[in-house]
Amino acid sequence: MLNANQSPLQRAAWLRKLYFIRAAFSFAWVALAFTLAKESPTLASGLLIVYPAWDALANLQDARMTGGAKANPTQILNAWISGLVTAAVVASLALKLQIILAFFGGWAIVAGLLQLATAIRRRKGDRGQWVMMLSGAQSALAGGFFVAQQGSAAPAVQTFGGYAAVGAGYFLISGLVILFRQSKDRSASEHTA
Question: The whole model's pTM is what?
Answer without folding.
Answer: 0.88
